[in-house]
């Protein structure tokens, strides 16, 4: 194997590791977002002191995670139906 071939191989390995780091960083950010959402939902004082409905807050936080407007509308409708009963 030539010196240039070795260099190209090492460069490829470096690029794969950089991609792994970027992937791990993105997954970490998502996990932190989910952790913060769970922390907000779990705390009675901030939710109650702001006059927020816990289930509606949970609905909004889930929407921030999935981003599906149709699902948000469907879940909101289901929540209103449950509250009416």
Largest sheet: none
Q: Report mean pLDDT, rounded to a whole number.
A: 92
Count of beta strands: 0
Task: Report the order of strands and helices.
Answer: HHHH
| Count of helical regions | 4
Low-confidence regions: none
Shape from CA axes?
Answer: elongated
- Strand percent estimate: under 5%
Please report the distance between the alpha carbons of the first and last residues.
74 Å
Q: Residue share in helices?
A: over 70%
Question: Rg from C-alpha positions?
Answer: 22 Å
Label the structural class.
mainly alpha
Task: Kindly describe this structure.
By secondary structure, this protein is an all-alpha fold. Helix 1 packs antiparallel against helix 3 (54-66). The chain has 4 helices and no strands. The termini are far apart. 0% of the residues are buried. It has helices at 3-42, 44-49, 54-66, 69-84.
């Amino acid at each position: 194997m030539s010196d240039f071939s070795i260099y190209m191989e090492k460069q490829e390995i470096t690029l794969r590791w950089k991609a792994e780091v970027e992937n791990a960083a993105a997954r970490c950010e998502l996990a932190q977002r989910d952790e913060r959402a769970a922390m907000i939902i779990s705390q009675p004082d901030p939710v109650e002191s702001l006059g927020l409905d816990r289930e509606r807050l949970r609905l909004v936080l889930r929407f921030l995670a999935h981003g599906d407007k149709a699902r948000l509308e469907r879940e909101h409708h289901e929540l209103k139906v449950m509250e009416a009963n």
